[in-house]
Design goal:
mainly alpha; 56% helix; 2 domains
Length: 137
């Protein structure tokens, strides 16, 4: 079984590239520290004896890939979950979006809607809600 910090930074990079090249899932913008921590956790839980074994399994077992994706992705939902994101959105993106006649926003993977509601509140505060469509899936 792998030790908690056995997965090296360069191995994380290889895995991110492999998963993207093979399946199209893009984890390149994920926090490296968080991604590495989750990969190490998966290795411990599933008792992989090496990083190579984990990598091989992910690339050759589509059923295991589903489990890997579930473990790697964020599975929590809450209002304004990522304050830095919403601050940047408010200060940098919304002023630009305000110049468009219609704003369409897709909030993917919002299980119970908190992210979509957060977006709606932000648009309302910026006086852009009236010309916005929010799609939550």
């Amino acid at each position: 079984m792998l030790e908690p910090s056995i997965v090296k930074d360069e191995e994380v990079q290889y895995l991110i590239k492999d998963v993207y090249d093979m399946y199209g899932y893009d984890f390149s913008e994920y926090s490296r520290a968080s991604f590495k921590r989750r990969v190490n956790r998966i290795c411990l839980i599933d008792r992989f004896t090496s990083f190579a074994e984990l990598r091989y399994t992910i690339l050759n077992d589509p059923e295991y890939l589903k489990r890997f994706i579930e473990e790697i992705t964020v599975n929590v939902t809450e209002m304004f979950r990522d304050p830095q994101f919403f601050k940047a959105l408010r200060e940098k993106i919304l002023p630009q979006l305000g110049t468009y006649p219609l704003i369409r926003i897709w909030v993917a993977g919002c299980s119970t809607g908190e992210e979509a509601y957060s977006m709606a509140i932000l648009l309302k505060e910026a006086n852009l809600y009236h010309k916005s469509l929010i799609y939550g899936t």
